[in-house]
Design a protein that fits this description.
Protein-Tyrosine Phosphatase, Chain A, alpha/beta, UDP-N-acetylmuramoyl-L-alanine:D-glutamate ligase, 6-stranded parallel β-sheet, Rossmann fold
């Protein structure tokens, strides 16, 4: 960890706990800051807040009172999920109090370089795959961010010999000041989290924060098939490295003669890749781009790709029961992710979908739904999905109460050779705390069928 006196005797407010808030509060306390923690959950139910209180950190729980700002904070470290429309944050902005997220704090203390990965879809798969490439290539990677350990905890232990691979959301990237990844990867841009950002322009700008502090000695890995990603890349000072599934490039990563190439050099035959789904080619190519920049050999990359079958809840194969294959894609919390999941299969599909209603319709999903045999729907968005399914010409549409019920109904309406796919196209929060909980319930329900 870098020796820094940046926060010594500074008044710092940590807004919102969960894992990142607790880690940030502990680190700031260690750095000599006067830390106050403010969390929505009442102290009686808040074990994390109690633990911080025991080491002498001031804790205010049960709401976000604006009066707390009277303590004259030098900086606020904000939980990424708390929107900037929160009255306390609105007042803080009016008072010109800097607001950062925990990833900025991690960067400030880290001796190791960062690789930052963002995009609307594919972040977790790309992050995990790149970590595996670097591990196989003996490059001493660490993994952090939305996947793995909180970034500032990883950064505390990292040395100059490490490289920190981080999955980063638009929420996290809005709260950076100097965060500068040695390699920044932008996978794709799709309408997402508009309830948080307000407009797509705001969302795109938040994603672009990944690249804004990069210099000429850094690299930005850019999806050449996504115009908005290309526009973000054009604004970066870093050297661009392009990848494309659609055209052959003079430099970068591309497909030719059923091989993935890097700079005119064949890396792996596509048929040898274990990870299913055409959409995963983008994730694979992005990860290859970064791995090659760091000097990982083609042999190490091939060793990983021939055995890596995916990440839990991301088009995860669960089981085969009486000729029906079950896949858990609970991480598909938007339409684009479900579009990609459906197009990953040539078999007939029974789709399990539904969840939190964020106000959008599902018309963009209709072309893919035309290849779906049966639609099993649940949650707040079930009526909207039924409408889209009818417009797609699906005759078999069934309402169910939840994911567990959906598995039984899907199996009862399936035939040998079918794929039964949980790919909800919606967030989980109307019925489940997380997409992981939703996916775990699906897995358990599949195993119960046996």
């Amino acid at each position: 960890m870098k020796n820094t006196e940046k926060y010594l005797q500074k008044n710092v407010l940590v807004l919102g706990l969960a894992k990142s808030g607790s880690a940030a509060a502990n680190l700031l306390h260690e750095l000599g800051a006067n830390v106050t923690v403010n969390d929505q959950k009442p102290i009686e139910e808040n074990e994390a807040a109690k633990a911080l209180q025991q080491i002498g950190i001031k804790v205010v729980c049960g709401g976000h009172p604006i009066e707390i700002l009277d303590d004259h904070f030098d900086v606020i470290v904000k939980n990424p999920g708390i929107p900037y429309t929160n009255p306390l944050l609105v007042r803080a902005i009016e008072r010109d109090i800097p607001i950062i997220t925990e990833i900025e704090l991690a960067f400030q203390i880290s001796e190791a370089d960062f690789i930052g990965i963002t995009g609307s879809n594919g972040k977790t798969t790309t992050t995990t795959l790149l970590y595996e490439f670097l591990e196989k290539g003996n490059r001493n990677p660490l993994i952090a961010g939305n996947i793995g350990t909180v970034a500032c905890e990883v950064a505390k232990e990292a040395t100059k010999n490490n490289i920190i691979v981080t999955e980063l959301s638009s929420f996290q990237l809005m709260g950076i000041e100097k965060f500068r990844p040695k390699i920044g990867i932008v996978l794709n841009i799709f309408d997402a989290h508009l309830d948080y950002h307000g407009t797509k322009e705001n969302y795109v700008n938040a994603k672009g924060q990944l690249l804004v502090n990069q210099e000429e000695t850094d690299y930005s890995v850019i999806n050449a098939d996504d115009l908005e990603v290309m526009n973000l890349g054009n604004k970066s000072k870093a050297k661009r490295v392009l990848f494309s599934t659609k055209r052959i490039l003079e430099e970068g990563v591309y497909v030719k003669d059923n091989f993935i190439y890097y700079n005119q050099e064949p890396v792996i035959l596509i048929d040898d890749i274990a990870l299913p789904g055409k959409h995963n080619l983008e994730n694979i190519m992005a990860a290859i781009s970064a791995a090659k920049l760091i000097g990982v050999s083609n042999n190490a990359i091939r060793q990983v790709l021939t055995i890596f079958t995916g990440v839990k809840h991301r088009l995860q194969f669960v089981d085969t029961i009486n000729g029906r294959k079950f896949y858990n894609d609970s991480k598909a919390t938007n339409i684009l992710a479900t579009q990609k999941a459906i197009t990953a299969f040539n078999q007939s599909i029974i789709l399990l979908a539904g969840g939190l209603d964020r106000g959008n319709e599902f018309d963009d999903l209709i072309p893919e739904l035309k290849s779906v045999k049966s639609l099993i729907i649940f949650g707040q968005t079930a009526p909207k999905l039924e409408r889209a399914g009818r417009l797609a010409g699906i005759d078999s549409i069934k309402y169910v109460d939840n994911v567990e019920h959906a598995v039984k109904v899907a199996y009862d309406h399936s035939s040998e050779g079918d794929v039964i796919l949980l790919s909800p196209a919606c967030a989980s929060w109307d019925q489940y705390k997380t997409f992981e909980e939703r996916g775990d319930i699906f897995i358990h329900a599949v195993h119960k069928l046996k």
